[in-house]
Structures are given as structure tokens and as C-alpha cells.
Specification:
Helix content: 40-55%
CATH superfamily of the largest domain: Putative Large Serine Recombinase, Chain B, Domain 2
Number of helices: 17
Strand content: 15-25%
Strand order of the largest sheet: 2-1-3-4
Shape: elongated
Distance between the termini: 114 Å
CATH topology of the largest domain: Hect, E3 ligase catalytic domain fold
CATH class of the largest domain: Alpha Beta
């Protein structure tokens, strides 16, 4: 007589209860199988897997489904180990029946004589229990949000977790917060790029966000490095405003898609103090979006005069060619339209160090004594920003609503949030008639001092901010192949805070500047 066979299936959502651990479930199933005289084919395990998840999405259950036709029985310790969903359990029952296998449990609740009616009743109770647990978790989270407490997990970079009043809260972490603010200052005020700041962070040995969290928690660090993507995520996420965040519905779970979790009135849940204020963070996000350029668009590089040097013959950009021979710099700027068999005009190549020196000297002579100005948002209410954030929140809630089953409690909550935001939007639209103002703030640092502090990349950004153009003419025939300032003319359109004023005022300022330079 053939010995009957059985597959043991064990599942655990989280390994925190010894009574339902993988080991205890396996032992109970093996003891039951041995008592019945069944041969165990294998043990399939699903760890950290919810009973509400689909059968095909569980690695262990997938092995069970593949082997159903070779087994007489499938055994689990209890009914809820199979599934906590009527739909999924019914599907499993049907698949097992079609393959000639019977589902049983080690506690005797399920056996080959149990009616399908009883199976569905018990499974319904399992689903009810899951919904009760989920409702309890959601209610707990809602309460924690309402009192500004942290829901759990690693604190965002720039923050730390503190214990007070019997709960956990977010607070500013001085060490990492200083790094964030320094990076923002370099990005907004000193012409730095994400790549350049990332390189500097790694050269300084600043721990990456992951290693910083491990070090703070007393765990071993892994030596992970900063990347431009990591830095972008740290600066871009609304978490730096003290908001509880989540990924927008239907989008990848990255910081670029983070949106604030909203309360009943559609306002962001605050779970910590602001690391960056609203105006600063808005400016950071705008700067990051502008620098996320695609193919064929301008990119800032290491060359001082990239997108500053211009060919006098075709007005096209001249590009830096790096050449170092025996330790000596022979780099040049060259117009690509004057190179090759099918060139548009004669060759136009100039020594890089000479041209860069001329541009630097002109910049410092003309503008070096003036103070650097920073554009800042006006102190009044930024209606445009609030309106944009309200529209984004409405779009995200609409996406959530489309994915929810009709008539549920969660649907009513989302509808209430949408109604509150729509009222706010109407109010903001009425206030938006007056455009937001900006003002220029004196940094207290001269342009010469700022130039000395910046990297080549930052200096390039400063030249471009002031509308610098270095127009280069070709080397005259028969002339010596050495740099001459006569070949280049360096001009400056002027800083943005001059260009933004009315033409008459700008003309008067230009006269004042000329008088100061010739005094």
C-alpha cells in the first residue's frame, strides 16, 4: 500500500510570538503527520509574509502550488496560516481539490471530513480578525499623528528620535541638520552642483545617511558613500519641513514622489520641527528640478568658461579640451565648427589658462568690490506656493480615491479631505490676484571674497549668473602661437538684481558703476 504524502506549510507575519514561530508550527505539523503515518515531502516557509497577500506572491506558497499534484495532503498548524482572506483561501481550496490534495490543520480544525461551508465560515472569521487588527492599527496611527508623535522607523536624515511624554517624537539632529543646511547654502548661494557637493561630502568623510543612522544607534557602519541621488533625495523630500510623508499613489517609492500625509482637513501632519522653512525648501526643489536637465541641454562642468567662451565667427560655444603633457597644462578652448574636413570656418583655438585668467581678472576688476545679493521670498504669505501644494494634495487624494472600494470608511475620510481642500483652494485663488513679491538681500560678502571661496564649478555659475561672455577671435595668420588678450573680449550683462529693475533705473546704475570704475 502506497504511503500517503504531505506538504507542510508554515507562515509568519513577524517573528515576535514564540507560540506561532516557524519552529513551533513545523514541529506541530511534523508530529501530526507522523501520527497519521504520512511521508513529509518538504516544508515550505513564508516569513514576514501577510496572510492577506495573494498566494502567488508568497515564495513558500508558490512551492506548495507547484507541488500540489504530487501530494495527498497539505498541512498547516492553524487555519489562519493558510490565509486571512476568504477569496485567497477559497482559491487555495479549489486548486487543492482540482489537484487531488486535501487541506488539513494540525489543530484538527480542518480535516478531510470538514464541509466546505465550515471552511468558508472559519475563513470569514480569519478575515474579520485581520480587518479588526488593521482597523486597530489605523486608529492607533491616526491618534499618533494627531498628537504629533512618530509612527516608527528610521528618522529622516537631519532628525533624531527623542522620548518624551510616554511617546516618540522627531527632533532636529544638530550634526546631520548642519550638513543639510550647508548643502542647501552651497546649492542656492555658491553655485555648487549636486555632483560637486557629493564629492566634497565624501572627501570630508561625512557619513552617508545610512551610516549616520547606524552610528547614531550604536551599530557598525558599512562604509557606504554619498551619491548625488542620495543627496537629492535628502533635500527634495517634504520630510525636511517636519511632515510625515508617503509615496504618491501609483508611483515608485522614491523621495521624488514623497507627499505629505494629510489630516482630516487636508493639511500636512506635522511630526517634527522644520529643518528647512517653506520658502527655502520651495527654492531648493525648484533648483533641483531646473538642474535635472535632459540630453541636449546645458550642463555645468568643471571648465571655468563652459557656456561663457564664445566663437567670434559663428557665436557658437567653445569647449574645453584638457591636455596635460609632462605635468604642464596645454589645455585649450576650441570651437567645434572650425574643426575637421567639413568645418564651417577657419580654426579657432585659444589657450585655456590665458583666457580663464583674463576672464577672472576682468570679473574681479569690474565687479569684485560689489556685494553678492541673494534672492529671497518676501515676508508675506506665499499664496502661490500654498495653492500649488493644495493642488498637488488634491491630485494625490483623487488618485487614492480611484483605487479605493466604494462606500468604505476610508473613502468617506478621503472625500472629507477633498472637500476641505477645495474650500481652501477657492480662498487661495481669491488671494492669488496679488502676485508674490521677491526681494534681494545683501549677503555681506563681496564678489571677490565669494570668488575666492568657490570651486571652479561655482565660479562658472557666478560668471553665468552675471551674464559673462568671453568672445574669442581666431589667431591671425603668421602670429605667434601664444595667448594674447587682444584675441578675447570679456563682457558682463550684469547681475540679475540689476536686470530685473526698469530700464531707466538700470541705465542710471550702469552710469554709477562706470563712474566708480573710472574714478
Amino acid at each position: 500500500m502506497r504511503q500517503q504524502t504531505v506538504i507542510i506549510y508554515v507562515r509568519l507575519s513577524r517573528d515576535s510570538d514564540a507560540s506561532t514561530s516557524i519552529a513551533s508550527q513545523t514541529a506541530a505539523c511534523e508530529a501530526f503527520a507522523e501520527k497519521q503515518g504520512w511521508q513529509v515531502l518538504f516544508v515550505a516557509e513564508d516569513v514576514d509574509v501577510s496572510g492577506a497577500s495573494k498566494l502567488e506572491n508568497r515564495p513558500g506558497m508558490s512551492k506548495v502550488l507547484d507541488a500540489l499534484s504530487s501530494a495527498d495532503y497539505v498541512i498547516a498548524a492553524k487555519l489562519d496560516r493558510y490565509a486571512r482572506s476568504v477569496l485567497e483561501f477559497s482559491l487555495l481550496t479549489e486548486l487543492a481539490s482540482n489537484s487531488g490534495a486535501t487541506l488539513v490543520t494540525a489543530d484538527g480544525t480542518l480535516n478531510e471530513h470538514t464541509s466546505k461551508f465550515m471552511v468558508n465560515i472559519l475563513a470569514a472569521f480569519a478575515e474579520h480578525e485581520r480587518e479588526t487588527i488593521q482597523a486597530r492599527i489605523n486608529a492607533s496611527k491616526q491618534h499618533l499623528r494627531s498628537v504629533g508623535r512618530w509612527l516608527g522607523g528610521v528618522a529622516p536624515y537631519g532628525y533624531k528620535l527623542i522620548k518624551r511624554d510616554g511617546g516618540t517624537y522627531l527632533d532636529i539632529d544638530p550634526e546631520s541638520a548642519a550638513i543639510v543646511r550647508d548643502c542647501v547654502d552651497k546649492l542656492l548661494h555658491h553655485g555648487a552642483s549636486l555632483t560637486g557637493i557629493t564629492r566634497e561630502l565624501n572627501e570630508r568623510g561625512i557619513a552617508s545617511p545610512a551610516d549616520h543612522a547606524r552610528k547614531r544607534d550604536g551599530r557598525n557602519t558599512r562604509g557606504t558613500k554619498w551619491s548625488s541621488t542620495t543627496l537629492r533625495d535628502v533635500l527634495f523630500t517634504p520630510a525636511v519641513r517636519g511632515f510625515l510623508v508617503q509615496s504618491a499613489p501609483g508611483k515608485p517609492r522614491t523621495a521624488l514622489n514623497h507627499v505629505p500625509v494629510l489630516d482630516a482637513n487636508g493639511e500636512p501632519h506635522k511630526v517634527g520641527p522644520e529643518l528647512l522653512d517653506a520658502a527655502t525648501h520651495d527654492t531648493v526643489r525648484e533648483a533641483l528640478n531646473q538642474r535635472a536637465v535632459g540630453r541636449g541641454k546645458e550642463r555645468t562642468g568643471k571648465a571655468l568658461l563652459l557656456h561663457v567662451a564664445e566663437c567670434a565667427l559663428c557665436t557658437g560655444p567653445m569647449y574645453h579640451q584638457n591636455r596635460v603633457i609632462n605635468g604642464k597644462d596645454y589645455s585649450t578652448y576650441v570651437c567645434p565648427n572650425g574643426v575637421g574636413k567639413h568645418s564651417e570656418h577657419e580654426s579657432n583655438i585659444v589657450q585655456a589658462s590665458g583666457l580663464e585668467g583674463q576672464a577672472e581678472a576682468q570679473f574681479l576688476k569690474i565687479l569684485g568690490d560689489f556685494n553678492l545679493m541673494h534672492k529671497v521670498e518676501s515676508r508675506g504669505r506665499d499664496v502661490a506656493r500654498e495653492l500649488r501644494e493644495t493642488n498637488e494634495a488634491l491630485d494625490n487624494l483623487a488618485g487614492n480615491l480611484a483605487a479605493l472600494p466604494a462606500g468604505g470608511r476610508v473613502v468617506q475620510t478621503v472625500i472629507s479631505q477633498i472637500e476641505a481642500l477645495e474650500k481652501k483652494r477657492v480662498t487661495l485663488l481669491s488671494e492669488a490676484a496679488t502676485p508674490a513679491r521677491t526681494e534681494w538681500q545683501d549677503s555681506g560678502v563681496t564678489l571677490a571674497q565669494e570668488w575666492a571661496q568657490r570651486t571652479t564649478e561655482g565660479r562658472n555659475a557666478l560668471l553665468r549668473e552675471f551674464g559673462a561672455v568671453a568672445t574669442v577671435t581666431p589667431l591671425p595668420k603668421g602670429a605667434e602661437r601664444r595667448f594674447s588678450e587682444d584675441r578675447a573680449e570679456v563682457t558682463f550683462e550684469g547681475p540679475e538684481w540689476w536686470r530685473e529693475v526698469d530700464p531707466a533705473t538700470a541705465h542710471l546704475r550702469a552710469i554709477e558703476l562706470e563712474e566708480e570704475l573710472t574714478a
